[in-house]
Amino acid sequence: MIELPVTLVIPLLIILGAAFGSFLNVVIYRVPIKMSVVKPKSHCFNCKVPIRIIDNIPVLGYFLLSGKCRNCKFEFPSRYAFVELITSLLTIIIYIIYGISTSFFIYLALTYLLIAVTFVDIDHFIIPNGFIGIGLIILIMGIQLRWIPIDWIEAASGAFVFAGFLFTIGIIGQFILKKESIGFGDVKLGLVLGGFLGVEYSILALYLSFALSAIYVFVMLGAKLMQKSAKIPFGPYLAAGSLIALFTTSPSGGNYILNWYYLTMF
Ligand SMILES: [Zn+2]
């Protein structure tokens, strides 16, 4: 591995992260409506005029034009800049944890995939099978090349526990609520996430996912910003819970959250 100074790597990764975020915006918008992610080039939703390369610079382009189309002044959703920022931020976090290593590339790919999963699920309440397929390919590559610290047995057990738990909760929810609570897309995503996490971290990730979604629902209902019957996508919470479980793993073994838990509770 080539050793680059941190002062050079960080700005480089901020720019690369934002550029990937920009691509993820295209994926999030186009994949659910079955459009190609490469053609045609990005254009304004309103006047259809292609966006100039200079205006398409992630984050910066958005702020330079104060989020408006240069041609028709149509206002772009601020989420575009948000997705670019969060992609950039997560890229830096993964670098800080793993350095430029083989694990870095695998977890980065997983994270980018989960960003796409999150926003597609928010917009359409679906997790495209293509995303699940890509997730499995990244996982299998990571294990086969030994680029991530997990073996086949642990990955398979994690996948079984993660997806199995969601499947069971889904069945129970269906029975009690008489409507779909956890979709089959979430169960399939659970297979991928459990594979990356193994059994113990899968349980942690599930716990975090349910806790995060409960906090969200509690706050939104309290602030009267959501109706009791509102449907919420669960993919974003599974993604967030899994990434938190993954990124709190300490290099010396164990997990910061679990270590804290065992120390406090026992
Ligand atoms: Zn326009």
Short key terms for the protein model shown above:
single chain; 266 residues; mainly alpha; 9 helices; globular; binds zinc ion
Assign an overall shape: globular
Average pLDDT number = 91
Residue windows where pLDDT falls under 50 for at least 5 positions: none
Overall tally of domains:
2
- SSE-based structural type: mainly alpha
Sheet with most strands: none
Report the span from N to C terminus: 42 Å
Q: Helical proportion?
A: 55-70%
Q: Brief overview, please?
A:
The chain is built from nine helices and no strands.
Secondary-structure topology with pairs:
Elements (H helix, E strand, L loop, with lengths): L5 H25 L29 H5 L14 H20 L3 H23 L4 H16 L7 H26 L6 H39 L12 H13 L8 H10 L1
The chain binds zinc ion.
Zinc ion binds next to loops.
Description:
- By secondary structure, the protein is mainly α.
- The model has no long low-confidence stretch (mean pLDDT 91).
- It has two domains: 1-100, no CATH class; 128-266, no CATH class.
- The protein has nine helices and no strands.
- Helix content is 67%, strand content 0%.
- The structure holds zinc ion.
- Residues 44, 46-47, 49, 69, 71-72, 74 line the site of zinc ion.
